[in-house]
From TrEMBL:
It comes from the Bacteria. NCBIfam families: cas_TM1812, CRISPR_DxTHG. InterPro entries: CRISPR-assoc_prot_DxTHG_CS, CRISPR-assoc_prot_TM1812. Residues 357-384 form a coiled coil. The lineage of its organism: Bacteria, Bacillati, Bacillota, Bacillota incertae sedis, Caldicellulosiruptorales. This is TIGR02221 family CRISPR-associated protein. Keywords: Coiled coil. The keyword Lyase does not apply. The keyword Zinc does not apply.
């Protein structure tokens, strides 16, 4: 398979067939109807196995090249039904008929590995994309391993998954497994199909013996929402979540926030768009996601001063255990606060920041010299100690060196939390003293 080409992988879980009511050889069949609620319907040939109908639909209607057709079933799955994937002039040949009957008889009680292997070899002479895997009903982890084996690490893939047949737990687990696979292989898209035999009554225009086919893009949408929501909750990176609810690419806005710029206009635009989306959302879960985002961006917008925004971001990352970001932002928020209190202009300038840092150190020295009344923000010895420890730990963490203060802050998370909590409490006091 070419490494430069995106491969189309069809995965189907094959189940146990329903024996014919008239006791003749074979299984009950149905005509699967694709696009049942549209004018251009596609009615597949009768089959007991939906995977065959899907394979033919993708090839004949969508003109898709299927690079691999992976079939996963148990020892009693309807493997014999796969004769229908062969060209019509081959299906009734003597050799195929004999082999198919042997498979059919064995699968009633449990097909042997050598028989299934021989059947696969017979079929792949005509359809080389086929690959069979037999698993036990509760051998769920093996199913995910199969997909890892079949999809190379350096390949690009579109995955089509048929979740119609088999014991219900198998396609459910496979659905989650394919979502996990997105993080282990390069998967560009996932399409999920279901041959909904029991839903025929929900579609008009179907004839007796026909079953509608449903493509379920909603599952992929939910997975993308889950992924982007988890990313936002764990890291604060809101770009994928905004994309999922239709607000476009906000990468530049996020970058400005990360770089401590002031994208106030962009944030106001996002807030207005969220207000519009809230009114037009179709589902309650969409509205709740929008409410969460609206609250976060409104809180950002309320922080007029840079030190306020930096402090809020520090709290945000601390709650999500991104300790280095929280540490750096909290210390820098203190520096910018000193610049504000001492009316040092252009606090984005390096020299201005150094002037503010000098004011901070001066206040620490005043406390040590028993002259806290000269200070505006630091009043107590324990406060001065906290600021010094915070600076030492910040420098050591950023540079990977040993701190001048307590080494435990870098090696013991509980000790580190005590320091951060003390520094945050001190920052709140400083805000009150500023006001």
């Amino acid at each position: 398979m070419s490494k430069n080409k995106t491969a189309n992988i069809l995965i189907s879980v094959i189940g146990k067939g329903r024996l014919k009511k008239d006791q003749t050889v074979g299984y009950e069949q149905t005509e699967y109807v694709f696009n049942p609620d549209k004018s251009k319907k596609y009615v597949a040939s009768k089959t007991a196995f939906f995977g065959i109908a899907l394979y033919k639909y993708l090839k004949e209607v969508e003109k898709m090249q299927i690079d691999k057709f992976i079939l996963i079933g148990t020892d009693q799955s309807a493997w014999s039904e796969l004769y229908q994937i062969l060209p019509r002039d081959v299906q009734n040949s003597e050799d195929i008929t004999a082999m198919c009957l042997k498979v059919y008889e064995e699968e009633k009680k449990g097909i042997q590995d050598n028989t299934l292997s021989a059947w696969q070899n017979t079929l792949t002479k005509y359809v080389p994309q086929l690959k069979f895997y037999k698993i036990k009903p509760l051998e769920l982890g093996r199913g995910i391993d199969i997909l890892l084996e079949e999809l190379d690490k350096d390949g690009d893939y579109n995955v089509i998954f048929d979740m119609t047949h088999a014991f219900r737990n198998i396609p459910v687990v496979f659905s989650y497994g394919i979502m996990l696979l997105k993080y282990l292989r390069r998967i560009n898209s996932i399409r999920i199909f279901y041959g909904a035999h029991e839903m025929a009554g929900y579609f008009s225009g179907l004839e007796n013996g026909q079953s509608p086919v449903i493509e379920i893009p909603f599952i992929d949408k939910l997975v993308r929402l889950i992924e982007s929501m988890a990313t936002f909750q764990n890291s604060g990176y809101f770009v994928p979540l905004l994309k999922q609810i239709g607000l476009g690419d906000r990468e530049k806005t996020y970058f400005k926030l990360e770089m401590n710029r002031q994208p106030r206009r962009e944030i106001e635009e996002i807030i207005k768009e969220l207000e519009h989306k809230q009114k037009s959302a179709n589902y309650a879960f969409e509205k709740e996601i929008i409410e969460i985002l609206y609250g976060e961006f409104s809180e950002m917008n309320r922080q007029e001063k840079l030190f306020q925004r930096m402090y809020k971001r520090s709290q945000f990352f601390y709650e999500r255990r991104q300790y280095l970001k929280a540490l750096v932002l909290l210390y820098e928020a203190m520096i910018v606060l000193f610049a504000d209190v001492y009316n040092i202009k252009d606090n984005m300038n390096y020299i201005s920041r150094e002037d503010a840092r000098a004011k901070l150190k001066s206040e620490i020295q005043n406390v040590k010299n028993k002259k806290p009344d000269l200070n505006k923000l630091i009043k107590e010895q324990d406060e001065a100690d906290t600021v010094e420890e915070l600076e030492y730990v910040r420098n050591a963490a950023v540079h990977g060196s040993s701190p001048r203060g307590n080494q435990e802050y870098l090696e013991n998370v509980e000790k580190f939390k005590l320091l951060l909590n003390s520094a945050m409490n001190l920052f709140e006091k400083m805000l009150q003293r500023r006001n």
